[in-house]
Specification:
about 80% helix, single chain, 6 helices
């Protein structure tokens, strides 16, 4: 019957949404996505900036440590050089006293040596240096001779170099976090711009670009070391 056909088709018409209703649903969906992106980016930006600041502080600390070690190494090297020069001068005087057959004066010069140099000197004498042309040129050339100040200077220089290298790595990490912080800020900018667009396609495209940039930057951050 015509009446029954009309009543049967009525639910189908009522179930269809008007363009305004579809636009409202789309607006609500895109706003939810934008809010989620904004929340994620806000937290990620704060965390990335925090890491950048910590790595920057680590860099300053390590560079300061390297500088302090360099100063101590320079002081130790200077002291070691002066001590080696003093021992060399006394050794020259010992050679002269020995050539003059003045054993008393020669023994006095031996007592003037520093303990490490005196040990090397006694070992040097066992090589019969006055008659053996293959003997080392002096106690300082003995294989086991170690000037404590020069050894300390070498150790401090190595430690300073290692600290400086770690400081450079910390600086690179800080720069990477700063870069990612800027990228997160770009995501915030894109989302804010997208909210101003009224055209659906443009707004959706801008939000998609912002979300893609967020994913890229988040992956980049997860690959960076943390402190």
């Amino acid at each position: 019957m015509p009446g029954s056909e009309h009543s049967a088709s009525a639910p189908d018409v009522s179930e269809q949404k008007s363009p305004l209703e579809e636009h409202a649903v789309w607006e609500e969906l895109i706003e939810i996505i934008e809010v989620i992106v904004l929340a994620l980016v806000t937290m990620a930006t704060a965390w990335s900036g925090y890491q950048a600041a910590k790595w920057d502080g680590q860099q300053s600390l390590l560079y300061g440590t390297a500088s302090a070690d360099r100063f101590q190494a320079d002081a130790a090297a200077a002291a070691g050089g002066q001590m080696l020069q003093a021992n060399a001068s006394v050794f020259t005087a010992w050679l002269q006293a020995t050539s003059a057959h003045d054993s008393t004066l020669a023994a006095l010069y031996v007592r003037r040596f520093t303990p490490d140099y005196r040990t090397a000197f006694r070992d040097w004498l066992t090589t019969d240096p006055l008659t053996n042309p293959n003997a080392p040129a002096g106690p300082a050339y003995m294989p086991h001779y170690r000037n404590p100040d020069l050894a300390a200077a070498a150790q401090l220089n190595n430690r300073a170099a290692a600290a400086f290298a770690r400081g450079t790595t910390a600086r690179d990490n800080a720069d990477s976090y700063v870069r990612d912080t800027v990228l997160f800020a770009a995501v915030l900018f894109l989302v804010a711009i997208a909210q101003r667009f009224k055209l659906r396609n443009i707004r959706a495209a801008t939000t998609t670009v912002a979300f893609a940039l967020l994913i890229y930057t988040a992956v980049s951050v997860t690959q960076l070391p943390r402190t």
